């Protein structure tokens, strides 16, 4: 077995003709590939049979690609001409391996003969050294940060051409297929082929009018579907195209010099050196910033509308990584608001990814090739359709027996038998199931919630756990500066609430005025809300000089700050201004940021660092830290305050501007002098607490995942009701007491009174207790106690100091416990988690965002309640329509079989009336019912084939059949009735048998549609669905008229027996038929209200099935924890 590890985190294992591609970051299989070569004999036979059978094998093989293996023979991957790709969701496809002549300098693999295949817009290249297919990330060798910084040359023409051959053009193309192509794909759908078969059969059977109407309606349905599909493709295409630029300036090496060239962005390749314009530019690729800085709006990717400052790479020997260095990387599709550099120098960036390999391309691919949702409803619907086919087979067998025993002609036997299957399996079933989702999507759009993955609306109805980011999601974005606690001589000073009490030259004030990433855009200060609030508290001014101010700070003019209203009377003195020489932007890994500054009046530079107190504690000199540092921090974080630590250090006098631009970050962020705490208040949004209460009442678990301090998170959890005051809360930590290199001990600290106390004994059987875990503990848990994570996760409520990748990991762990997971965040550091969750909701004002399946312009978590309500409504509606369509076909199936037995059949216009007027109108209007206004504690069922769902359904089927049989036997009891002669060869349409059973069956469709339109607990009451009521009432009145006294024209048109007014006996019979639908209505109501909705049915099923253990892993763990003995943890 040969193995090969790719640099982008993918691992490949080659076994004979098999290779497995793993995503190492997510520790899961992506897909498998098998090598094949075409077998000429088998291939020729395949094409011959396809011609003989009018293309049927082509159709079957296109629907089930894995069957194409019959054309091929297995081959080692290095000799294969075709590969079979099977992903971990069961999808498979055959892909041809391409071959190209290519020579490429400076790459890891020999590429004179390039073999590759394209799968979901990703190129996999054959590496002859490892005998595996690798992604293009592995073709170009990784470079260190210093190598990027030291190489300021553009590509030569030969290098460019070679790379263009390998990587292709820089395109993210969302194909908008022509209407003709979409139409061909649509009609090749198995259901449409079945529809065509049915229409052909009806034409042979002289159902001309019905067949023509079905053709017209099918064309109308197809065209509507095509338009909808086309619009969705155009919307995504326009979203991708809206974030494109039209030209780009690159540096190309001509001889020994770099020359500027303006090219089309599609011609860019990895390694190109681009020159960024001064402002208003859309990035055409992923590129690392080498010089200057850039202010970027990344809302199209993250949903975060606050501008982000990107700075040039800092000198380092570490390998460049696009995720680790994202603060220095400009991403494709993002809007560059401004770029800045000193003097006339260009702002340069090196292209690292192009096309679908960019971050934007990956997000687009996740939309084009979504991960299957796996909702049981969709799987069960196909099982149910197979059951319908089985029922049809039984009906066909009965028809064969019936007509053969009567000695009917072969044509009649074949037509009557095949006709059964067209009745039992309704071709419009898939389209009808989507009605509820379409209505829900439109309602969501009206309230400002946009969806790019409509099938996920149904998943919203099954959410079991709701995860929330804290800042900007549960709490407001803006932070209110509450106080400052300065530190002097290793002691905390009195609390300062007014900045004017401190001297402007105080180092704490200077740090607050400079240690940020704020910038001016259109003469307004923009940036992170925390930085903005801190700076405004100082009442200083921020200036970004123009070219005429290049006289200061070592001949270069950086951004500078000064106290508000500073005026120098003595012009010979230098003003009190502090220039920000260099920024080390905030890193979620380091949890801090730093700046290098210089007071214009001083010769030496100074560095300021601000960030998480826990991080700065280890960066500061011990002698500068107050002894009550931890106590003071706990006091404020436990009250819900956001605490930021600030520190500084003097830099050597000899450090000049050039050295400052190259100094490493770790040199700055050490041996600092602690300055004090900034105490900020991050108030809850008004809607947060009521929504959390609503979710808890709905039996939906809530979890907080934040990058903030654990005690601050605990306080917010108490304030919003995520953790009740009466609940037990334990902070989980891992500590090495004796051997620092040994396995750390688990330690549970009770957060009593919002402050941790001594280690305690934790009883997992307690219902009202929670765990709080920070990112550092999480990493250790995964390494030392992986088996314990599931048991902890079912009780953990607070996850603090979590980095973006840890948030994604947590979401996936919860999914592995069989939770249906939702994640709500502002998009900034939550993108991975939002995409990983079953239901990801990005709070953003940008409608055109691919940050998550759902984007809400409602700026609070109440949007999740709307989504759950609509999801439950859509899921229940889809169930209702599916059951109605299934019962409609079975009702008609019973009607047809009864009439076949009595030598009769239904007429052309009778089929039209049932299929097109009754069923279609009712199925469409059922979906118009809106969601309930209240979120109940019970989730709707997601399984069609569960006993609780099937038992009422079977009872309804038997009720329908019984009423129809009772009707025909009631007819037989009439003394005036004369049956159709048994020696009749041609079936009779106009007969009392037909009239009686047909009219009663019409009522049954209306009755069942009414039963499946019940409102509570997931939908609004039936009386609110105006169009359904109008439709059902109109159809009931018309059907009653058809029974009681239709005019002769209508009776003849509908193939009914016409009875003149004077024939009282027959008319009394028709009046008495009205009792059957009344009885049916009462029985159907009893089944739905007295059986289907009752808890006793569920308990009875569990008793009969001897169900004792839950199916979901999280429920099983909760049950096991309930019986688990006390876990003693040594304090």
Automatic annotation (TrEMBL):
<feature type="transmembrane region" description="Helical">
    <location>
        <begin position="1071"/>
        <end position="1091"/>
    </location>
</feature>
<feature type="transmembrane region" description="Helical">
    <location>
        <begin position="207"/>
        <end position="227"/>
    </location>
</feature>
<dbReference type="Pfam" id="PF00122">
    <property type="entry name" value="E1-E2_ATPase"/>
</dbReference>
<keyword id="KW-1278">Translocase</keyword>
<keyword id="KW-0479">Metal-binding</keyword>
<dbReference type="InterPro" id="IPR008250">
    <property type="entry name" value="ATPase_P-typ_transduc_dom_A_sf"/>
</dbReference>
<dbReference type="InterPro" id="IPR023214">
    <property type="entry name" value="HAD_sf"/>
</dbReference>
<feature type="domain" description="P5B-type ATPase N-terminal">
    <location>
        <begin position="29"/>
        <end position="105"/>
    </location>
</feature>
<dbReference type="InterPro" id="IPR006544">
    <property type="entry name" value="P-type_TPase_V"/>
</dbReference>
<dbReference type="Pfam" id="PF00690">
    <property type="entry name" value="Cation_ATPase_N"/>
</dbReference>
<feature type="transmembrane region" description="Helical">
    <location>
        <begin position="912"/>
        <end position="930"/>
    </location>
</feature>
<keyword id="KW-0967">Endosome</keyword>
<dbReference type="InterPro" id="IPR004014">
    <property type="entry name" value="ATPase_P-typ_cation-transptr_N"/>
</dbReference>
<dbReference type="Pfam" id="PF12409">
    <property type="entry name" value="P5-ATPase"/>
</dbReference>
<dbReference type="InterPro" id="IPR001757">
    <property type="entry name" value="P_typ_ATPase"/>
</dbReference>
<feature type="transmembrane region" description="Helical">
    <location>
        <begin position="179"/>
        <end position="201"/>
    </location>
</feature>
<dbReference type="InterPro" id="IPR036412">
    <property type="entry name" value="HAD-like_sf"/>
</dbReference>
<feature type="transmembrane region" description="Helical">
    <location>
        <begin position="881"/>
        <end position="900"/>
    </location>
</feature>
<keyword id="KW-0460">Magnesium</keyword>
<dbReference type="GO" id="GO:0006874">
    <property type="term" value="P:intracellular calcium ion homeostasis"/>
</dbReference>
<dbReference type="InterPro" id="IPR047819">
    <property type="entry name" value="P5A-ATPase_N"/>
</dbReference>
<feature type="domain" description="P-type ATPase A">
    <location>
        <begin position="246"/>
        <end position="367"/>
    </location>
</feature>
<dbReference type="GO" id="GO:0140358">
    <property type="term" value="F:P-type transmembrane transporter activity"/>
</dbReference>
<dbReference type="Pfam" id="PF13246">
    <property type="entry name" value="Cation_ATPase"/>
</dbReference>
<protein>
    <recommendedName>
        <fullName>Cation-transporting ATPase</fullName>
        <ecNumber>7.2.2.-</ecNumber>
    </recommendedName>
</protein>
<keyword id="KW-0547">Nucleotide-binding</keyword>
<keyword id="KW-0472">Membrane</keyword>
<dbReference type="GO" id="GO:0005524">
    <property type="term" value="F:ATP binding"/>
</dbReference>
<keyword id="KW-1133">Transmembrane helix</keyword>
<dbReference type="GO" id="GO:0046872">
    <property type="term" value="F:metal ion binding"/>
</dbReference>
<dbReference type="GO" id="GO:0016887">
    <property type="term" value="F:ATP hydrolysis activity"/>
</dbReference>
<feature type="transmembrane region" description="Helical">
    <location>
        <begin position="384"/>
        <end position="404"/>
    </location>
</feature>
<dbReference type="InterPro" id="IPR018303">
    <property type="entry name" value="ATPase_P-typ_P_site"/>
</dbReference>
<dbReference type="InterPro" id="IPR023299">
    <property type="entry name" value="ATPase_P-typ_cyto_dom_N"/>
</dbReference>
<dbReference type="InterPro" id="IPR059000">
    <property type="entry name" value="ATPase_P-type_domA"/>
</dbReference>
<dbReference type="GO" id="GO:0015203">
    <property type="term" value="F:polyamine transmembrane transporter activity"/>
</dbReference>
<feature type="transmembrane region" description="Helical">
    <location>
        <begin position="950"/>
        <end position="972"/>
    </location>
</feature>
<feature type="transmembrane region" description="Helical">
    <location>
        <begin position="45"/>
        <end position="64"/>
    </location>
</feature>
<comment type="similarity">
    <text>Belongs to the cation transport ATPase (P-type) (TC 3.A.3) family. Type V subfamily.</text>
</comment>
<feature type="transmembrane region" description="Helical">
    <location>
        <begin position="1026"/>
        <end position="1051"/>
    </location>
</feature>
<keyword id="KW-0812">Transmembrane</keyword>
<dbReference type="GO" id="GO:0019829">
    <property type="term" value="F:ATPase-coupled monoatomic cation transmembrane transporter activity"/>
</dbReference>
